[in-house]
Amino acid sequence: MLGTTYVAQVFMGTTDYVMLAIMLLVSMSIGVFFAISGRKNTTKAEYLLGSRRLGMLPVCLSLFATFSSAISLLGVPAEVYTYGTMVFYTGVAIVLAYLTAIVTIVPLLHPLKVTSVYEYLEMRFQWRFMRLLGTFIGVVSSVSYMTIALLSPALALQTAVDLPLWMSIVLVGTVGTVYTAIGGIKSVVWTDVFQTVIIFGGIVVILLK
């Protein structure tokens, strides 16, 4: 009929499922590798900090992957499309905040060899309650963020290829939890490096197409 728009429903094919399985298997394999290779050294410093011997490049790429989740990849383009480029100033503010932290906070915390900022709170105020309070706020913040970080790609997959919402959340959440738990920070960093390569590769392919 005149004026009627038909939208074809897209479903995941065999290749799509294979690529999804490869991504999950590689991520899990990285966790298993570091779990096996690091079993002779099971100290807290090794598990949480990689014995403080992680290279600058993988750590930078890991931080990029951490703060550039589906929330950024889906949310920022939608924000710009709907409201314009004002969101750009948020990026400027973040860069300025990082530069300020480099010359103020990092020189303070790095020589102390603390495991987390919560440990510093207890040292600074000589009160364990401050550490527990900071930890509680941090856990609530992280859980809230991860909820949206898991929901965003799940909604995209559900809309684009009709993949059930619960399946995406369970798959990604389970794999991420397992490789983090068994491999420690080294597993997280190198998995993030792998995922960063996938992110940039996907963006390049989309732009070329």
Key features of this structure:
single chain; about 210 residues; mainly alpha; 8 helices; about 80% helix; transport
How large is the share of residues in beta strands? under 5%
* Secondary-structure content class: mainly alpha
User: Could you describe the largest sheet, including whether it forms a barrel?
Assistant: none
Count of extended strands: 0
Give the rounded overall mean pLDDT. 84
General form: globular
Regions with little confidence, pLDDT below 50 for 5+ residues: none
Gyration radius, in Å: 20 Å
- The sequence of SSEs as H and E is HHHHHHHH
The helix content, as a percent range, equals over 70%
Q: Tell me the number of helical segments per DSSP (H or I, 4 or more residues long).
A: 8
Family: Belongs to the sodium:solute symporter (SSF) (TC 2.A.21) family.
Keywords: Cell membrane, Ion transport, Membrane, Sodium, Sodium transport, Transmembrane, Transmembrane helix, Transport
Pfam family, one: SSF
GO cellular component, one term: plasma membrane
Structure description:
The chain has 209 residues and is mostly helical. 79% of the residues lie in helices and 0% in strands. The protein contains eight helices and no strands. Helix 1 crosses helix 8, helix 3 crosses helix 8 and helix 7 packs across helix 8. The two termini are 31 Å apart. The relative contact order is 0.16. The mean pLDDT is 84. It holds the Pfam family SSF. It comes from Candidula unifasciata. InterPro entries: Na/Glc_symporter_sf, Na/solute_symporter, Sodium:Solute_Symporter_SSF. This is Sodium-dependent multivitamin transporter.
